[in-house]
Design goal:
heterodimer, A: 241 residues, 2 domains, B: 81 residues, mainly alpha, 0% strand
Amino acid sequence: MRRMAGIVLAALLFACIMYAFTFVKTYDYNSSDYYYTDPIEGGKVNETVTGHYIENTKNETGAINAVTAIVVEYRGFDTLGEVTVLFTASTGVSMLLYSLHQRRKRREANLILKEGSKIVLPFILLTGAYIFIHGHLTPGGGFPGGSVIASGFLLMMVAYPKYFLKESRVSITESVAGMIFVLIGMLGLVFASYFLENFLSLGDVGRLFSAGIIPIIYIAIGFKVGAELSGIMNNLKGVEE
Amino acid sequence: MIESIIAWVMALLAFIAAVYAVEAKDLLSSAISVGIASLVVSILFLMLHAPDVAITEASIGAGLTMAIFVYSIGRTERWEK
């Protein structure tokens, strides 16, 4: 009885959400002012925070992807905190699981999974690297790119029972990437008077080598997130002896 | 038209997978259906023009979270009491 009531409640909620979805306007490629309309009042907005970001990110930061410009440039200090949170979480997982030296018998994976993962792994790593190197141009950035890389290593761990990452290499990658992030912020303090201020030239907007410190910081974040998530997976699988 | 049909099918799939994940006694299939739900939701994100959220949802929600669940089930018990 109680279970049925729960399912009915979930179905009602689902119906409400789908009814609300019918009011969402789909993207109209012909009208350029879709993103400028106020979702509550319905009129055009230009002088709000959203409007400012959409109008000025390209000139102020040199990044085409406005999300990246906000994450790395306008709210860079928040991102430093986020990376710290992730680092603390992965440290906690390591502390909890490092002492569990379980040597369990693992079944060998079948031939197709083993050979297929060998073929697919470089492409997964390349996709992850592409996502975080082009973070200022195309959708994505350090966090998605790093998690794609970690899922590539996860595939190898699933396919091969004896595949482990070296703990020291993972931690060195993570530490160096984090230090680069903070160091670039400090350089901003020295050269441009603010922490994490962009002190390099913006360059040609739309090129790979543009937008100053944004690609450098996002590459560091990509390495850091990838190393942390792969380290968590490595610890969950069991520690190499 | 076709977009809205795909969106409805995806949303129904996500709903069924979410209800199954709560109701199933087998925790392994429950974890797998959580992964299915989050994969389907990532397709919905892509259709709502949020490709960066879709990438993150697909790799973290469908990949890494499911792996964490599966490893945890391997260290504890598979069947819910």
